[in-house]
Design goal:
Elements (H helix, E strand, L loop, with lengths): L6 H10 L8 H13 L9 H8 L4 H13 L4 H10 L8 H14 L4 H6 L8 H17 L10 H4 L2 H8 L10 H9 L8 H22 L8
Length: about 220
Amino acid sequence: MKEAVPAHVVERFLTLHPRSIFQNPERLINAVNFVKNLGFETTDTMFVHVFRVIIQMSESTWKKKIEVMKSMGFSEDDILKTFKRFPQSLGYSEENIRKTLNFYFNTMKLEHQTIIVNPNLLGFSTEKRVRPRYHVLKVLESKKLIKGMKEFKHLVISEKNFREKYIDQFIDELPGLLEFYLGIKEGKSSVLDGEEELAILKGMLSVLREEKRRESPWLEGDF
């Protein structure tokens, strides 16, 4: 290795990823050189975070994830820009990357540039955060309680702020909305009563049908 990694960088990395001390020295050297070939210097602030992601995967796995990103419409330059801003974007499994991007592009209709500029969106759980929040806003939109989504703003706010802004203030109009939201997060059906159950579930069914159509346009019929 032509250039040694500064001691403070090594110390910081071992603090974040102590198990790496058991890695084969040659693998560590190869990982350092791989990261440097991506355009990162050992003195860069992001070097430790990038190295942490790279050391946990093989070169073949890296290539597979690159191919997944390409299959979703990203160029190699786009992928590198995204990775440099948020290294963990390629730290997830191929299946998870595909599922997350599929929801953003086909259901939420986000642009590729939105992901490139805001790659932290790839770090949000589709099942626990993205999908539940999306459905809540779609129900509010269908009941004309909000004018529409502003791309992804509802995703980046805290759980507390999301509930206050999109659930608590509509408790009178939709008293079962919280149960509906929590039910989606837990992967369960909402347990509601009376007319509110019918109103919310109708809105939910409409949203889910549209989502299903977008994700699998070749399938016909309801589910």
